[in-house]
Amino acid sequence: MPYDGTKLPITNILINARNRLEKGWCQGHFELVSEDGNSVEYCIYGAVNSASSIMDTNDQAIDIANKAVKTIQFILNEEEIDKWNDTPGRTKEEVLEMMDKAIVRSMSHE
Question: Are 103 and 14 in contact (CB under 8 A)?
Fold first, then answer.
């Protein structure tokens, strides 16, 4: 799903998190690093955390990361993102589709 134009901070975090998930998604772990250190897989929370870590750790950056999480919770209609992520049978495609919806929502609400 291509995204063009100016990206606002919450949208930026969600897009960067989605990109991380597309490269590698996992269940049951925050993140998994391969033995050679060349690849990383993330759960949804891990991807958002990694994507937001490029920002300063000031209150504004933390607020933006929390808003990104709340956007995902809204799309899922579920507060426990990790529970949704780790549901047996969940697929990477479902995770990416959900992230696309969160990105679209964030673009219309920032």
Answer: yes
